[in-house]
Amino acid sequence: MPSLKLSKMNELIDEFIEFLGTTKKYSKHTQSAYEMDIRDFIRFYENFIGKSVNLSYMSTADTICFRAFLADRQRRGLSHKSTARALSSLRRFYSFLRTKYNIKNEAIDLISSPKIPRKLSKAINPIDVKNMQSAIREIDATEPWIAARDWALVMLLFGCGLRISEALRLTNQDIAGRPEILRIVGKGNKERLIPVLPIVWQAIDKYISLRPFGNQPEDTVFRSVRGLPMSPRMAEKVIENLRNYMQLPDYVTPHALRHTFATALLSNGADLRTLQELLGHSSLSTTQIYTKVNMADISDVYSNAHPRARK
Predict the structure, then answer these.
(1) Whose CA, among 44, 85, 205, 242, lies 20 to 30 Å from 214?
(2) pTM of the entire structure?
(3) Is 43 annotated in the active site?
(4) Residue 281 known to be catalytic
(5) Which domains does the chain have, with CATH numbers?
């Protein structure tokens, strides 16, 4: 068993974050979220017991301590979703401590996560998606290659149901030869296969033909104005500019394009298991929310159009 001489929490947390990156292959973004959550708990715990926390103290935290931590987050106005993630981060941290340092804490498993209300996302009107192409041309009139890039990105999100991170991770090697099926690496480093429609390839082909740089096989497909890999914030800004230019509702986001892809498939007969595979959901319950959305649409049509719904 490793020595317990590692008493400085900063070193222990750094070791855990390194474990997440090298062993679990978690993204930098996920690693940062875990680190922020754990450091938040350590700060609270030190105030709670009135002394510095070391490795041995981690086993003595009880249910009162953990519930007080959740209450403290609520007082600070943090969302249930954020707090549920923090509790999940702590559980993962304690699992690491148990495996490597034989530090056990049964109290953490007795704490229930806050219930997160599931919001029903809204699909974008297909006409609005279609009109985005001409809007992009007008917004990026002075830079045709940027206009082509933005439309190719929209088509990947809407036409293949990709997450922003998945689209931006694609390299020239991944799309070489215009394969009918793309191999996508999603959350948790899980792979899935996505069919690509010809209209999506048309948008990508045009962008690549105009793109002034980033043409090496290992380069990511989507590039910034300066030739660097496009960041998630840049991609979000593309949709944000479109939303403002076209005066669309606030729910029009990159995720809404993925959501529109999902609801369109479900409305046209796709079963939940197929949809789960295409979206890369680890749990079918995550995919089932789209059935609620679909029923909401049906209910709306019924209440507004069906004779029996009228009083």
Answers:
(1) 242
(2) 0.56
(3) no
(4) yes
(5) 9-110 (1.10.150.130), 126-303 (1.10.443.10)
